[in-house]
Structure formats: C-alpha cells, structure tokens
Amino acid sequence: MRRWLPITLAVSLSAVTLVHAADDLVLSRFTDYIESLRIQAGIPGLSAAIVGLNDVQWQRNFGLADVERNLPVRSDTPFALDGVAQIISASLVLRCVSDGKITLNDRVEGGTIAELLSHTSPGPNGPVFAYHPERLEPLAHTVAACQQTSYDDAVGMLLARLAMVDSVPGLDTLSIDWPPPTRARYTSALDRLAKPYAVDSKGRATPSSYTGRVLTPASGLIASTNDLVQLDLAIKRGVVLPSPDLLAAAWTPPLDGNGQRLPHGLGWFVQVYNGERIIWQFGVSDNASSSLMLTVPGRGLTLILLANSSGLTRPYALAQGDVTASPFARIFLSLFLR
User: Fold this and answer.
1) Residue 190: inside a domain
2) Does residue 10 lie in a domain region?
3) Domain span at residue 212?
4) Can you point out the beta strands (E) in the chain?
5) Is 34 part of any domain?
6) What is the value of pTM for the model shown?
7) Minimal CA–CA distance to 222: which of 151, 287, 291, 132?
8) What is the spatial distance between Cα 250 and Cα 160, in angstroms, rounded to a whole number?
9) Are 264 and 284 within 8 A, CB to CB?
10) What would the pLDDT profile of 10-45 be if each residue is shown by its tens digit?
11) Which of 22, 80, 97, 136 could form a disulfide with 218 if both were Cys (CB 3.0 to 4.6 A apart)?
C-alpha cells in the first residue's frame, strides 16, 4: 500500500490544481465580461467584488474615478450607493425589532413598517407591490427614536462598528458637528469620492453632479467596495442581525392575493434563479451613479458593483423585481450558478 501513496498524492494535487485552474478561468472570463459591459455602457469607473462566506474571492477595479485628473478607481474609492442604502436602513430597523423596541406592524406615515420596507400597500385582494424608495423616509424617525439619537448618528455608529472606514452618511454630513476623528474620516472619504458623470448615447462622459445630498433611509449613503465587503461579511456572520429568524423573515417576501410571492422582502428584492434564491438591491441616480449588490445565500456568494454613472442599472427595469434584466447580473449568475 505504501508504494501507492505518492501516486495518490500526485493525483490529489493534480485535481486541486485543475479545480483552481477552472476557478481562475471562470474569474478571468468574468473580469473580461464586466470590462466589456462597462465599456458598452460608457461607465467611466467601476469597482467590483465577489465575496464568499469568509473573505473576498475576487476584486477588480475598472476605469477612472476622475476622468479629468486621470485618477483610477480603487477598492477604497467611495461611491454613492443610492437605493442600496436600503440595506443599511432595513438593518437598523430590524435591529430595533430584534431589541423589542418596535414591531413590523407598527404604523408610521404611509403604512406599517413592514409595508414600507417591502414596498407594498394593502389592495382589495391582498398586498400590492410598487417600488417607491421615497416611502421609506418616515423610518428615519423610527430609527432615531429607537436609538435615541439622530438618524445620521445611528447610521454613523453602524458604519464605525462594522469598520466601514470609507463610508459617509450623506454628502452634507460635514455640516454636522461630528467628533474630530469622525469628521476627519468623513472628510478624507469625501475628498476621494468618485466623480459623477453623465453619459450620452454615444458613450461620451461629461462631468455631472450629485443631486441627493441629504441622508435618508433610501439614499445619500456613500461607501466603497471594501466597505460593502465588510457589510456583507457582517450580515453573513450574524453581526448586523443577531437573529437568523429575523434575517430569514427579511428575505421572505409577502404573498399577494393569489398566494404568489411578491418581489421585495424587508429591504431586499428576492427571487429565484435556476432553483437558487437570490437576494439583491440596486441604486441609481440619473447622470451620476449606480450600484448593485446581489447575494446567493445557498452558495455563500455576493456580487458588489459600484459605478460613477447611471449605466450600471438605469437602462434596465430592475424596479420590476427581476435582476436578470441587468446583463451585469446575468453574467454573474450564468457563470457562478451553473
């Protein structure tokens, strides 16, 4: 038996090498696809990452954060998250639920907390879905009352707790009297914020400006890819929501009057692709920025994409609840959920 050990070991090592080579090939193809899609969409700069259960599996940056100054995108380049900010606001609200300070059935302006987070309203035959992120604004008061502080401070404390060091609670946050270390961190991040661009039909980018400057539960948050990696890992490890049951509830959309699942859970879109449940959220600001964060719980994989134009999500009807409308998402799903 002993003489077969070197052969067995050699075969095992060869198998491992082949597996890694296959992984490298898939990741190389994915990198090429993302760069090709970025160029087609005319996106000046894009930051991307794939996160596993415990660490980053792949991370790349494409193009420029500032075209005029020829500054490349980096993994610590802050971007505007727009609607992806709902993940943070939902996490804060659900933490208040977990602490027993509020319930999902509590009423606020515009409906119950659950209705606002799931973008639903009562209909004659059951809940009706309509994606209106601005409806979440009353939840800022809910979080502030729960944590006995301002909404900006509640978000800032979560960012600090998760070591999201490139994140800022709103473009106008320096108007708030933050402690000196916090203010210095926010100032540094804002100095490195990706410059926004408008892109015409021929793919030509011109400098634009951010319109949403105030932090709300649905917009205004700024973060880097590195920071969203921290957020994703914290969610997977139960740091953000200590109750697995509550996270499961957040990732379970309500039923309509016909018993069919609606597209949105509590802070996240939810759908099924090739038998796998996928959890996702997107953000967009016209002529400025766009973002996409997609998690496959059954595989422990998360895709993060941040861009400094609206080309990542604006051309696609993602508000209808089907992430496969995005070619960026389709490439990821087709390569990694086979």
Assistant:
1) yes
2) no
3) 41-336
4) 45-51, 56-66, 71-72, 79-80, 107-108, 111-112, 120-123, 126-129, 168-169, 197-199, 205-207, 221-223, 269-273, 276-285, 289-296, 301-307
5) no
6) 0.92
7) 291
8) 23
9) no
10) 434 333 333 344 588 899 999 999 999 999 999 999
11) 136
